[in-house]
Structure formats: C-alpha cells, structure tokens
Amino acid sequence: MSEFIQIIVSGLSAGSIYALAAVGFTLLWQASQTINFAQGEFVMLPAFFVLGAMGLGAPMWLAIAVALGLSVLLLGAAFKKLIVEPMLPHGTLPLIIATIALGLLMKESVKEFYSAQGQPFPPIFPTEVVRVFGAAISVADIMNLAVSFAAILTLQLFLQRTRTGRCMQATAQNRGVAEILGVNVKRMVMYTFLINAALAAIASILITPIYLAKFSNGETLGLVAFIAAIVGGFNQIRGALVGGLLIGVIDNLSAFYVSSEYRAAAPLILLIVIIMVRPQGIMGTSEGRTV
Amino acid sequence: MLRKILLAAGVAALSMSSAVSAQTVRIADVAELSGAGAAAGSVWHDGVVMGYDEVNAAGGILGQQVELQAYDSQTDPQNSRAMVQKAIDEGTYILMGTVYSSSTIVNMLVAQQNGMPQFTGSESPTITAQGNPYIFRTAFGAQKGLPKIGSYLADDLDVSKIAVVWANTEFGKGGYNAFLNVAEANGIEIVADIPTEQAQVDFAADVSQVASSGAEAVFVYLTEEESARFLLEADKQGLDMPLAGDTVLVSQKVIDLAGEAANGAFGHVGLSANAPIPAIAEVSARFEARFGYAPDHNALKGYIGAWTVKYVTEMVGELDREAFAETMHGLCLDAATYPGVLMDVCWDESGEISRASFLVEVVDGGQVITRTLPAN
Fold it and tell me: pLDDT tens-digit profile of B113-171?
C-alpha cells in the first residue's frame, strides 16, 4: 500500500508539471488555432536561462526571475510577433511546420552554444522526505504539485474572475463577435502567448532539478504534454490538467507494476483508446468546423 | 600555354599536398559528441585531444605530427557505423572510439572488415568476445570489473539480497549478465530486476520498486546522465540502502551532475582521476587546467589510448596497421618506460585489458579511493 501511495504522489507530481505544458497547448489552440510543436523546447529553454543567469553570478531567486522575464519576452512576445503573426495568415499547416522548425532551432542552438551534455540544476525545494501511511513522500514532489496547482488555479481564476480574463475567453470562443463587442482581440491573443511562456518557464524550473538541464529534454516533455492535452481535451484547460495528471500517474504505475521498458507505450495506448472512444478528450467538448 | 601553366600548378599543388600528408598522421576519433552519450563521449574526446596534443609536443609518431579528426556519432549506432566508414575512407591510420557499447558493437565490424585497429572506451563484455583481432579496450570489460564489486558486496557488506537497475542497451545488458554470474557466485539473491531505457529521465517508479523490494543494497548499471538522475531520485525519495556501481556510478561526471545526491555511492573503478598514482594526478591537473572540469575515467581512457598508439607504432617502426594489431596482442606496457599509459597495463589476445583497479566511495562530492585491487 505504501508503495502505491508513493507511486501515485510521484506520478501526480510529474503529471502536474506535464499539465503546465499541456495547458499551454490548449491556450494557444483556443486563442489562435496554433499548435505549438516547439512547446517541449519552450519547457527546456528556461532552465538554461536560469543556469546562464547563475553563471553570471545571480542568486537562484534572481536567476529564476530573469528566466521568467526572458521566457515571457522571447517565448511569448517574440514568438507571437516573429513566427505566429507572419505565418498564421497562410493557414495552420505552415504554422505547425514553422513551430517544428523553431523547436529544432532552439534545441540545436542550446546544443551548440551551451552544451550537448546534461547540466546539473540546483534543487529549488528541500530534498527531504515525510512519512505518510508508511510511504516515503518527497517534499519536492509535494511542492511541485502545490506550485503547479497554484499556477493553474491562478490562471483559472484570472480567466473567470477578471475582465481581461473574460475578454480572453470571449476571444477564444468567437473572435469576430469579441471584436464587435470592443475586445482588443490582438492584445488578448498576445496575453495568451505570454501566459503560455510563463507556464512553460515554471514547468522548466520545477522539472529540471531531476531531469537535468539538457538540450534534448523538450523531445520527451513536448510529446507527453501534447498527448496529455489530447487525452484531457484540447479545448479545455481543466482537460489539460486532468490529462497531465493521468499521464503522470499511468506512466509511473506502468513502470512500477509492468516494466520501465514499456512505460513509453502506456501514454500512447491511452491516447489511442481516447481517440477511439472519446475523440474530444476526457473533459473536452465537440467542435464543429466547416470544411 | 594556359593548359601548361594549369597543369604545372596542379602538379605543384599535388606534390605540396602529399608533402603535407607525408608529415602528418591522420587519426580519427568517432565519439558521442551529442545525444544521450555526450556526457561520456565528449569527455573521452577531450582526453584523446589532450593525449595527441602531448604526443605531438613530444615529437609526434615516428617524427610525424598527428592530425586528429573528430566525428560525432550522435550516440546513434547506425550513424557511428557511417562515421567509422567515413573516417576510414578519409584515410585514418588508427580509429579511436566509440565509447557507447551499443555503437561499438555495430561499428567495430566496419573497422574489422577494413583491417583498422580500433581503441574503444566501451565496457560491454561482448565487445572483446567477437574474435575481432583489431579491437582494443582502454578500460576493463564489465566481466573483469564486476567480480571485484561482487566480492566486496558479499564479503565486506554482507549483502545477501540485492536490486539491480540496469540500462537496457548493449552496455547495460553486458554488465547485467556479468553481474548475474557474480551474484550467483557470491550467493547474492536478486530480488528486483529493473531494466531501464536509454536516455530515461524519470526514475521515480524504479526507485520505489527498489525501496519496496526488500533488497539490502542496489546495484546500478546505467550510463552517466541516467546514473545521475537515479541518484537524484533516490535522494529525493530518501532511499536508505547502499548504492553500488561499476565505474560510471561513481565517476566524476556523475558526481558533478548529481551533486550531494551522489554522496555515499560506492563502486569499482578501473581508472580514477583520484587514484593514488602521481602520473594520473599530474594528467588530471593538466586536464582540469585546460578544459575547466575534472576528468573522469573516460578522459583517462582517451588519453591512454592516444599514447598507446604512439608507443606501439614506434615499436613497429612504420605505419602498418596489421603489424600494429599483431603487436598489441599479448603486449604489456609498464608505466615507468611508457609514462603515457599512466599505469602498468597488458592486452590479451582478444584485446581485453588487464590493469590494477580501485574501490571508490563518494564522499563530500569527490571520489575517495578505499582500496587498490591488483590486476586480474
């Protein structure tokens, strides 16, 4: 029983971080019909911003602040202005290809200009363990879970309880009507990109102490987050949260009770089942589109 | 007239080029400079670079300077095979690399077909079990190192039940199979058998499995970054049992990556920058001054390989690959006469190496040698 609790908590902790990246997928999709295949690299890069700032002598807290700022600027505003805006008028497919190219560029740039090797990343939470019903629960796991939930809860409250948030929702639901009602649609879309970048930076800072900072981290994270977003429902933030948590738990359970060799297959099996049984995702809603 | 001038210029250029090539010995290093094995391959490569730079400073090989060419295998066995072929086509005299056994087991066939002597940093027992007369190790195969850690676990730590976490790769399978024999020979029961994937990032379930297995110790046989991630996760989950490994787990690279989480891990190492041997200490200091980080066993492997190429070629007296390979078999080099090998070393007929080794424990972020073991 104690192992089961331990596995579930570890799975929820990892899953909550996947959820942060998955929420980014859903946000961008809803706001601008953008599927960002560089999302994994968006999670990989901020850890290197932190290491770069620390290398220049900044303390950890300042390095994290710098990384958040740089992420919002580069992965939010610059991404929107330089990639999405010029490509979007040409349709979704060219934009998808552009994001794939961006992901490759980011990955190879980190490899070329920082290092091809994994880099140690300082832990941001104490490496202590608390005993709960005989299970050894890591404080870092609990804190990862708490920070991720706090970030997603804050986002939900922002979207539902603030005027700007409701304008963003209106933009996501019907861009044309929102514009007629006086919503500054361009600004709302920009906010969405900035939020996505901030969430990616938080995910990066939470996951890298265990994964190590490496240029290739985005490959795994991007794929898992994408699957989580589809499983949960691509058009629902709650869905991305559920998808992320589910993938994290299933991944750990399959590694524990089946084998680590087949763990990569478990999320993909879940994806196939969901697509066959409930294509809109667990929490998603069906959308009709004219073709 | 113009044709004559061009012809003369062409002949002059060709003769200049052959003059240049006559003064240099081209040597290729095919290594894991990117991908999952970069932590091992790039350190090996730095060791090779430093070794050949010093060889050149000492007059080169047979009076000719070494021209070292690096090839990135990207930690991909098929790519490593292509790079080895490319290196051979481009006229390398000797082949250095690769480090990852999964790559070496594939690319060594190309080298063998071309009669190309190859110095590898790989440790899988299968490498020297293929009857390839051109392959030579720069460090022990796991089958030679693991009996030493097996005896230590059984006799000194009184371990009777153990969990084994191993990489499901050529490197890992070789070590895993060797450890099964060692465990059986020492009466150690394997209570958890946990294979993992190359480049695995999440070890939470694996550590939980070890913790709940009833094992008295865990034997970890993973590559550098995976070893570090395992140690970080073990530390995070408060895994309270001896963590044993062979070479990689207690290597400087893993210690650098895992930080305090590596403290307490112990293992057998064939080469260590902290070995109580003045020549190794001097090379390590030069390496750290040049590259800005402490060398590990892979750096020393590359360095020793470079100097061995010089010594053996000069024994042969010419750049003759066949004679080189024949001379290597059954060769012993003593460090007093051949200081570049750092420790007395012998190669047998299969290319396997024999040398003294060490038991190491990680204390306060550094390797501490607890015992020096004789060559076997």
Answer: 999 999 999 988 899 999 999 999 998 888 888 888 898 899 999 999 999 999 988 88
* Residue B1 touches partner A, C-beta closer than 8 Å: no
- Chain B residues in contact with A10 by the CB 8 A cut-off are 204-205, 208, 237
Closest-CA distance, A120 to chain B, in angstroms, reads 5
Can you spell out the DSSP letters for B50-81? HHHHHHHHTT-BTTBEEEEEEEE-TT-HHHHH
User: Pick from A22, A32, A36, A53: which is nearest to A213 by CA?
Assistant: A53
Per the CB < 8 Å rule, is B205 touching A253?
yes
Mutate to test the interface with B, among A112, A113, A117 (most CBs of B within 10 A): A117
Could you tell me the residue range of the domain that residue A161 belongs to?
Answer: 2-277
Q: Is the peptide bond before B372 cis (omega within 30 degrees of 0)?
A: no
Contact B206 A255 (CB under 8 A): yes
Structural domain includes residue A16: yes
Helices (H), B58-201: 77-89, 101-113, 142-151, 170-185
Check CB contact under 8 Å for A14 and B202.
yes
Amino acid B271 reads L
A227 lies in a domain?
Answer: yes
Residue A246: CATH number of its domain: 1.10.3470
Contact residues, B window 187-206, toward A, CB-based 8 Å cutoff: 194-197, 199-202, 204-206
Domain B2-140+278-355 sits in CATH at 3.40.50.2300
**Of residues A115, A127, A212, nearest to B236 (C-beta):** A127
Q: What pTM was estimated for this model as a whole?
A: 0.83
Partnered with residue B346 across adjacent β-strands are: B332, B354
Q: Which tens digit of pLDDT belongs to each residue from B10-43? A: 544 444 444 345 589 999 999 999 888 888 899 9
**Which positions in chain A touch B209 (Cβ < 8 Å)?**
3, 255-256
Domain boundaries, chain B: 2-140+278-355, 142-269
Contact in structure between B160 and B150 (CB atoms under 8 Å): no
Instruction: Test B168 with A261 for CB contact under 8 angstroms.
Output: yes
- How far does chain B reach from its first CA to its final CA, in angstroms? 71
Per-residue pLDDT tens over the stretch A11-54: 999 999 999 999 999 999 888 888 899 999 999 999 999 999 99
**Domain annotation covers residue A286:** no
**Angstroms from B209 CA to nearest CA on chain A:** 6
Structural domain total, chain A: 1
Residues A128, A69: contact at Cβ < 8 Å? no
pLDDT single digits (tens) B52-76: 999 999 999 999 999 999 999 999 9
Fold for domain B142-269?
A: Rossmann fold (3.40.50)
Q: Is residue A290 part of a domain?
A: no
B229 touching chain A per CB within 8 A: yes
Same fold, B2-140+278-355 and B142-269: yes
